[in-house]
Design brief:
This protein has helices at 3-6, 13-24, 31-35, and strands at residues 41-45, 48-53, 56-60, 65-69, 79-80, 91-92, 95-102, 105-110. The chain has three helices and eight strands. The protein has one domain (3-110). The strands form two sheets. Strands 4-3-2-1-6 form a five-stranded mixed beta sheet, covered by helices on one side.
Length: 113
């Protein structure tokens, strides 16, 4: 694993821009909704910056972004098991859960690193 991937603990301005771009893609919720009222939970894991919001999630590196939309799902807010990081930093991913995203189905993202 490269030094860059091991030391990611801050979300760079480029990754922040990627999050904003991903949120504004067709099918996205738009940057104002994604970031309003702390609606976007942000974490790092394995060299990726991860963003979780009602309706979907975003995974980004410095050069690529993946947006996952939960089509036909309930608009539930993701719940994190780890506390927020200090200002200017992003916490490492523990687990983020979407309870009852679809009837009888919950979704959990957890770190393997």
């Amino acid at each position: 694993m490269s030094k860059r991937m091991r030391t990611i603990g801050r979300v760079s301005p480029i990754v922040t821009i990627l999050f904003l771009l991903a949120a504004s893609l067709p099918g996205g919720s738009g940057p104002s909704r994604a970031l309003a009222g702390g609606g976007l939970l942000q974490f790092t894991s394995g060299g990726y910056a991860l963003g979780f919001e009602a309706g979907g999630m975003v995974a980004a590196t410095g050069s690529h972004v993946l947006r996952v939309d939960f089509v036909g799902a309930e608009p539930v807010r993701p719940q994190a098991d780890s506390p927020a990081a200090p200002a200017g930093r992003t916490a490492s991913l523990g687990q983020v859960t979407y309870p009852d995203l679809w009837k009888g189905i919950s979704l959990a993202y957890s770190s393997m690193y």
